[in-house]
Amino acid sequence: MDWNCFVPVTRDRSFLTWLLAERVYGRLLHQLLSMALKEGLRNWQRVLWWLILLAAGLLGLLLYGLPGVRHLEIFIPMGTCPLAKMSLRDNFTGLLHLWARPDVLTCTSWGAPILWDGTFDPDVAQQEAIQQNLTIGLTVFAVGRYLEKYLARFLETAEQHFMVGQRVVYYVFTERPAAVPRLPLGPSRQLRVERVQRERRWQDVSMERMRTLHAALGGRLGREAHFVFCMDVDQHFSGAFGPESLAESVAQLHAWHYHWPQWLLPYERDARSAAALAPGEGDFYYHAALFGGSVEALRELTAHCAQGQQRDRTRGLEARWHDESHLNKYFWLYKPAKVLSPEFCWSPEIGPRAEIRHPRLLWAPKEYALVRD
Ligand SMILES: *[C@@H]1O[C@H](CO)[C@@H](O)[C@H](O)[C@H]1NC(C)=O
Ligand SMILES: *[C@@H]1O[C@H](CO)[C@@H](O)[C@H](O)[C@H]1NC(C)=O
User: Where is the catalytic site (predicted)?
Assistant: First the structure.
């Protein structure tokens, strides 16, 4: 249930174009910058010439296909972690190696780690979680055609990669419990199916999600689990997703937006909406396909989002990206204790990137026409 493909995507993207665009533009920008810096205005004609070339190239790429242009965003710096030289500890991973990934931002301004491959030791987290005798919940909504299309693969790959070696309880929310595939589960892993009402529009499924989660967290799920992840079903696991990702509250950097400057992020801007962020507000753009935390923290998060959505609805409003807009508002007000890099929830449609070393969840290609009624 991922309704946030904000940028139009063309599908005939070739890998070579990507590489070419990256190389050519890296080189051009580098030339231009060093020339401008070294030679100053003396050489303004040459700089101008390069600028024209650059603009023409950009235009060409734009005509050739958006993806190539989009790929340029990797040149927008993410910033560096001021804490990297100090030690940041985490309850599950022990000492984090924030300096191990100088190519990316590894902490937030409020001191939360941003988990990238190489900054944590998965074995330490594994031992810590076993020692704490944790039960980890994973909730997923499989409504309408999303059930047949995505649920089996989501669960099969979760068995292979999600919290392997821990006690796990899956909660599948669906309007058709009988259609949920019965998969063989590993030891100390269980699947529970909860019936939900069928909503007429997919927007309403999204609207109801927070309220349904809130109720579940106050019931059996909340009694059974210590930490819970809430995920969209139209994705599958592709790498180890372990207890290093656990924290009081966990947010996921959106794969499409993690390089973008704050003023470009697709927050809700209508000031009448409960999800609205004013200009200058917002830290990152978080993806609603994955969020998590302790049961208590998630109770508050889901209550806050559900109330915001209800308030908007009584005013005849609907936030731009539905529950994701409200989630972003919540995480602006109450900062997440841990942020997951886009490696944890990656979109293969973006193409390969050097900084994405080890994707753990991959979005399925969007087929809205097929799955949305
Ligand atoms: C670990 O938790 C499970 C279920 O919550 C419980 O049945 C079991 O007794 C616990 N084990 C220990 C050693 O506390
Ligand atoms: C670590 O655990 C302690 C106590 O269990 C808790 O108070 C603290 O908030 C946790 N820290 C993080 C970053 O989750």
Answer: 324
Choosing from 324, 343, 349, 355, the catalytic residue is: 324
CATH number of the domain encompassing residue 249: 3.90.550.10
Residues 174 and 47 in one domain: no
- Ligand 2 pocket check: which of 83, 88, 91, 115 to mutate, most ligand atoms within 8 Å of Cβ? 91
CA of 132 to the centre of ligand 1 (A): 9
Q: What is the pLDDT of residues 271-330, one digit of tens each?
A: 999 999 999 999 999 999 999 999 999 999 999 999 999 999 999 998 989 999 999 999
- Active-site annotation holds for 39: no
pLDDT tens digit sequence for 146-160: 999 999 999 999 999
State which H helix or E strand residue 70 sits in. Answer: helix 66-70
Query: Residue 165 Cα, ligand 1 centroid: separation in angstroms?
Result: 14
Residue ranges with strand state E in 226-363: 227-231, 235-237, 249-253, 286-294, 338-340, 361-363
Domain with 67, as residue range(s), is 15-75
Instruction: Please tell me the pTM assigned to this model.
Output: 0.81
